[in-house]
Amino acid sequence: MIKPVDRISLAMRIGMPSVDKVVDDFYNRIQIHSTLSEPFSIVGHWDEHKVKIAEFWWVALGGKPTKSYSYDPVGKHFAAGLTENLLNDWKALFLEVLTTHLTLELANEWRLRVEMIGENLLRQNDRLNERNLNHHYPVDTK
Fold it and tell me: How far apart are CA 35 and CA 38, in angstroms?
């Protein structure tokens, strides 16, 4: 049995150089993707975005933070118009990139995190959409 202190995080098993390669390739492909390029066109500085998102994934995969960023993935994806269809395209592209750069075992482990984060984004996005639809403004009857 492996003690918790002796476990090696997924981030460490993948390595920061591979995380950087996956993120770089993924966002290069997004910029020319048939359905994802338009919503992601809100990204102003791709190089900065890639560095920030690589750090996000590093930490999400169990790595220790190397930089300090504030993230608003729900707000950013809501502003970009995330839908279930776009999320499915995002996940499919991510899996394609993962299997290009990683062993099948590591790709599948990272994919589980992608699925979890993607589903959370969709739930939060739906919640924000519902809140906006159900918000009633007072009607001026004068």
Answer: 7
